[in-house]
Fold this protein.
Amino acid sequence: MTTQAVEHELVLAGRMARLGTETAFEVLSRAKALESQGRSIIHLEIGEPDFDTPKHIVEAAVDALRGGWTHYGPSAGLPELREAIAANVSRTRGVTVTPEEVVVVPGGKPIMFYAMLALVDEGDEVIYPNPGFPIYESMIRYAGGAAVPIPLREERDFAMDVDELARLITDRTRMIILNSPQNPTGGVLARRDIERAAAAIGERNIMVLADEMYNRLQFEGEPFSMMSVPGMQERTILLDGFSKTYAMTGWRIGYGVMRADLAAQMTRLMTNSNSCTASFTQRAALAALNGDQSAVGAMRAEFERRSRAFVDGLNRIKGFSARMPKGAFYVFANVTGTNWTSKKLADALLEEAGVAALSGTAFGIYGEGYLRFSVANSMENLMEALKRIDAWTRANL
Ligand SMILES: Cc1ncc(COP(=O)(O)O)c(C=O)c1O
């Protein structure tokens, strides 16, 4: 790619220096570049289900397109979808949610962005899981907030230490981000931990951003939400969506559930940025929520099966060890036994073994010593990846 010569320097706003990124997309494009040179790469870097969107959802979208759902809609989402989401969240979280408390947006990510823009002022502290989804830290800092990491440790099965959380809360804490099941570790927050976190917050006016994007992909036990803790509903922003649950990553649709006065403010942010979420996509999401749910269970079972097989395989490879994740579709492997840094190892596996994974440091400083493998790939490819990694370690360690 050649870059055209420019006469005028690009002068960026200062805040752009605080914007982070999601490394998965960068590794994906490096892997694609290697493939275009004829190399064989197994893609375990990107976090999206390898399944097709269930047929009845696709059909609903096609019907919607033919039926003229091709125009602008209300910024907060179509009333029938907000209603269906409110009913679904009321039922699954055991709370009463009204449609005015629902904002439909293009993916789960905008809820993070809008929550920071709407609530975080310069210098406000936001506590976030580390390693964690990289966009949290990026958005906190972009909004001018102070990003306060809470480390997630392997010995606790990557569930946060609530006593540590309690110690991190200060008078400047404006928001706490929780994510369960968690990306990248597959950790899950137990009901007891969530209740204890609520107790640590006490009566403080702190907002909890509860990222429950993977709640339908929890392998054991019922997921529990901060929104369900008595007294916490008005201080919880629940983030959920369709990307992972229904294999709809490319459709771009997600939602937030929050008190109605905050929902109105997020709607203003929607009007200012996206105007609305695509109307036919919303009609498809309605079919996803109201239709046959069997595909969700089938995907969850398959992710669990693959995770187990991949963990077993990794544990037989020199320098690698991994715990069985409790949800989502990632294996977060400890690679300290290789004596390589995570980034160097991820680069070498991509370049020399043809396996694309992400360095744990792509998820924050506490990710050093780990690699994230997405098991959203066929069992056959996962087994081939294990073979390649094993061969590489035999030759290089
Ligand atoms: C924890 C978590 N939250 C939110 C998202 C964003 O989802 P979406 O693609 O719907 O924006 C992801 C995507 O990887 C995620 O891992």
In short: The two ends are 36 Å apart (CA to CA). The first strand starts at residue 42 and ends at 43.
